[in-house]
Amino acid sequence: MSISDTTFKYSGTVGMQHEEPVLFEHAHEAPESINLPGVDGDISPELSAFARKTPASIPGLSEPEAVRHFVRLSQWNHGIETGFYPLGSCTMKYNPRVNEQVVRLPGLAHIHPDQPEETTQGVLELMYELQGWLGEISGLPYVTLQPAAGAHGELVGLMMIRAALDARGQQHRRKVLVPDSAHGTNPASATLCGMHTVELKSGADGRIDLEELKRHLDDETAALMMTNPNTAGAFESDIKEICRLVHEAGALVYGDGANLNALVGVARPGDMGIDCLHINVHKTFSTPHGGGGPGGGPVAVNEALAPYLPVPRIEKHGDTYSLVHSCETSVGPVLGAPGQIGVLLRASAYIAAFGRQHLHRIAEDAVLNANYVLNRLKGRYHVPFDGLCKHECLLTDEWQEKHGVKTIDIAKRLIDLGFHPMTVYFPLIVHGAMLIEPTETESRETLDAFCDAMIDIADACEAGDTAMLHDAPLKPFRRRLDETQAARKPVLVWPK
Amino acid sequence: MRFLPHTDSDRQAMLESIGVAAIRDLFADIPAEFHIEQGSLALGDALSEAAIMRKFTRAADKNRNATNTRYFLGGGTYHHFVPAVVDYIISRGEFLTAYTPYQPEISQGTLQALFEFQTMIARLTGMDVSNASMYEAATATAEAALMARRVTRKSRVVMAGSVNPRYRAVTANYLSRLDGDYVEVDMGCFGTDLDRVIGAIDASTACVIVQYPDFYGSVYDLAPLRAACDAAKCLMVVAFSDISAFALIESPGALGADIAVGSGQSLGIPMGFGGPHLGLFTCKQQYMRQMPGRVCGLTTDAGGKRGFVLTLSTREQHIRREKATSNICSNQGLMCTAAVTYMALMGDEGLNTVARHSAAALQSLVARLPAHVRAAQGARYNETVLSFADSAARDRFLAAAKERALFAGIPLEQIDAAAEPRHLLIATTEMVEADDINDYLDLLEVAK
Amino acid sequence: MTIPAGLKYTKEHEWVRIDGDTATFGITDHAQEALGDIVFVELPEVGRVLTAGEAYAVVESVKAVSDVYAPVGGEVIEVNDLLDGEPENVNSDAYGAGWIARVKITADDSVELMSDDEYNTFLEE
Q1: Minimal Cβ distance to A154: which of B60, B314, B327
Q2: ipTM score of complex
Q3: Count of domains in chain B?
Q4: Is B331 found in the same domain as B392?
Q5: CB of B9 within 8 Å of any CB in chain A?
Q6: Which chains touch A (3 or more CB pairs under 8 A)?
Q7: Helix ranges, A315-443 (H)
């Protein structure tokens, strides 16, 4: 074997893949139980009357078996630490390991939300500082850290907007305008807030069409929910006019901060006229996605909306920090806890690492990387909207479809080549969307390898070598899964 | 900046290939008036890794924590034992840094773990199916109310006054912007009188929400309520805050719950000042398609091998948008992995031991209370309310206990604003040792 | 793709077979094809009174969902329970085993209905 092994081009590989049964198939009897501390005494006779009659049938494994089981499962996963993860609108950036150490400090991990406040000043101080930072970064100085995720932040933001309109005596304003390119959470959150949505058709450039907006703005409009940059990766350059029109109509502008990674440290939504913005800390501020969560969706608002922030609020009086639970104008409690503290601490550590000196470099390199990918692929894939992109770029399968190859095939082939696919079939405003977000933490080498892979796929289409694309992926632990079967006859639990 | 791989020459080469002169040119579509000056934001100075650890350690050191203090605190957050393996597994990058498993071929690890999680949670709660998590218990309770309204096509929600006040407040808040009544039934001080709840049910009622064991720790039979719900064709929703109970006492499913929701924090997740915790959502099979949130299901791949996918997605916001069953997208995925790892390490026997020790610690304490402190009556799992002569006596005790590195309970009015300030909500787990209980009882002398 | 004669069609791609005062509802072959593999049909309750144009059922595929609207008004007297376990019937036999509901027509209440030829032209447009 030569030192320089050039036999592989992409990291996609068939490695040592272990099958692993589901836990309930481990047939042997439960091993000796784990040694547990505590009081090995009697329970009360009153409680005994409620004793569970049949055990739950939770199989127990010995420690080595359990470790091997879950380590094997982990090996069937692709994570950002394993490889490139260019999911558009998801901001899959590297998650610094020091942040994991931070949240495991006993003084932050093993504290109770209801222990005496004088014994939690340290965590409150960190949260208070983070509120200030997020206010400064967004240009919207009043912040709640409570929302547990982006969608939760949307609901909380809309609650505040609704409360502000009600306070003006405008209970009839219940209409929320949502562009057709928006995340599905936007209309779903509006419904949950007792409002109804009207979809705005995007203009030919994928952006908000001012005429369409004007047509729908009226005295029943409560808010426009917009994502900027939008989900096609384009900055809404008319932002100032959009906000002016909405405000002139007596409504407010809600900003979906899912794409804040394009702006962080470079420009501030609050300066542009946005009234209320949720921030996905699991995107912009690099808290790990964890296979679906936990996330964090702090909401930042301007002064007009500040009275309506949810409770509890973290306040500082003198040198003392406290959780304030009552406030007459507040929209009330939205979570049973002060927030997803462990997630927020990681975000705080990420911001601290960049500091005021370097924060803008997040957006700069993120946008540079997306434009680099766009530029390399634009001759080989159809680009629906011209011009520079921001932190993500949008392609479609229009050119490949002529060869019978669809977005889904391209995505699955990428897996065989060692890359997580981009976001597919979103946004809904173009046919066969492929939304690519490289983030700032990827090297040029990785971007080039990914672009090479995409170009190889385009070549294969043109050469008519499409069977392998339809069959892909062939290399991972499992091939394409039958989603129809799963949904027709749902099996959600292992039978007893 | 150590998280950014590019060198300046990389950047220059990339800019050239794009055809622009400088990075700022990539932002030309943002109106110039909105560009902010580099370094002008009022943030801290950039910190090295060592400086970050120093900063956070200093802050952490200001907080008393369970490594230096004994905890008798509950109310929705519990200090249970977390085996080292749990934290190791959820620290693995393949679980930690993966996205939602939308590409199942390369997410089978997360998906199988979710399937195992759903199965174990369904078994422990005695319910047919579980979803793949909600944020936490209060929002899960609100979602249960919303689901009951969809299932029954009725809109009135009856909430028992013995449900955790935070779950009540969040549910009331969620419902307040929608049509339909919301009724909270006063059950008196730590009351267990279900008849009052039953009396509040009418033909328009979509569901009744009770907590079991309730917020004040009471365990009582729900059979009369089940019968009343059947008669009125409404759903019985059972909330819970410490799921460890169900390894010892009868499960919500066995008591006839249609929907059971609550916290899974006790399953291997540290208190973490309130989050991230784990919201659980379970229901009967027939209501499965009205559940909020993601679910994982079993299927086969193109080669005929068993595999797992996210399924029933048409309920969710990314497909059904304004008609979705919920707006939830990100959930508590990693916490599910923690919980399933914890349960696999424990098994029935370990879970039962946790529950027995938790209950035994409370029993040992309550049985030896001095005459000047009273405990609420009736069956209790690991939580109860102690009543003192007055708030001064209670607060004297709390202060003395804190001095002896013991958090003796939560002043009840801190969570339940309606409570008199002489009550103390206390909880025990397997982390409470016999000596801690002796110390607790000794300290009660100051409350005389 | 088939468009049988003798049925009436709506612009929302439903079909209706009117037989005296009884009407049988379903979705067209075109509709099932557009949706892809049907995984679930949410059926209405027997006894429910529908007005023409009212959404009375929901048809779901893996990645899409569609409301189904009543072509004519009436009271639901029967639903196709078989779809509960075998929603694929809508794919394989949209006009037969894939029927969704049967109503008793109680009033002169109908959306704009097309003949098979008209529907064919409508699809081509």
Answers
A1: B327
A2: 0.97
A3: 2
A4: no
A5: no
A6: B, C
A7: 341-358, 360-377, 398-401, 407-416
